[in-house]
Amino acid sequence: MRVLVVEDDERIAASIRRALAYEGYSVTVVHDGGTALEEARSRPPDLLLLDLMLPGIDGIEVCRRLREAGDTFPILMLTARDGVSDRVGGLDAGADDYLVKPFAYEELLARVRALLRRVDPDGRERLGFGPLTMDVDAMEVRSDGELVGLTALEFRLLEYFMRNPRVVLARHRILLEVWGLEADTSSNIVDVYVRYLRRKLGDSGGRLQTVRGAGYVLREPQ
Questions:
Q1: Which of 66, 128, 181, 208 has the most CB atoms around its CB within 10 Å?
Q2: pTM reported for the whole predicted model
Q3: Domains, the chain
Q4: Residue 214 to residues 12, 159, 174, 210: CA-CA distances in angstroms?
């Protein structure tokens, strides 16, 4: 699942990114309120971690604008302020939960899991992109509702693309993240398995595009 982190302290933001990425989340980090609004509107996350004190547009206003626009993804607000009025202000603006700094990362991760369970009450992790849906726990992929039979390696490759939609992924990066192998310029295994996926996904394979000289990207057909 994709988590958008909005935190102006780059050290804290990097620590949060590492903690979430280690747990398997796809993480995007921005450092100000204006960029947060743009990112959330163009690529709605499954969860938003939102610092209260931000340059430009503060967290309260970011939260309020997103809710007024109809965005329903859960928002966990982070702040060094622990006064009752501050917590109430964040919750009234539309935040789902509130965590005071400094916090233990075990608690942060527990709250993230709890908020995501509200989105998916049975606790199963699901990914989606266009007509493609993936039940990560069951290792099932469907295209337009039809079950697609994939091998374990094909599943891991597609999962990697679906966790990084619209991101151009170099072959050496795919080789490392999916196969756990260092770059080998003589190997065409990535290209072979991309062809397997395209064939099995049928029309949806048009979304798995080649970027000449760079790698592959999962995105909407042009």
A1: 66
A2: 0.56
A3: 2-119 (3.40.50.2300), 126-218 (1.10.10.10)
A4: 31, 20, 12, 8
